[in-house]
Design goal:
mainly alpha, elongated, single chain, 100 residues
Amino acid sequence: MSTTGKVIVWLVVIVILGGGYWYWSAHKSTPAPVAQTQPATQTPSPSSQVTPPTLSTSASDTSDAALNQDSASIDNEMSGLNTDSGNLDKSMNDQPVSQQ
């Protein structure tokens, strides 16, 4: 096959692939709109407020007492995370309210 023939074949292949892509993108389905729902009202809980974690001792204090105090602070933060995780688990198991 001559060089001109190869070029023509490649051009035809590219045009067919481009046309197929255009057809596919023009006819792909779009998701149906979601019905608007009214958000549930919640009372803010103290655990919903995000506070940055801070250690009660300075970064350069490496004494045993400071390490124990930092460990206690970390334990308190982890306890709070466990509480938040438990609340999240409860909310995932929440039963729907009947709509009238």
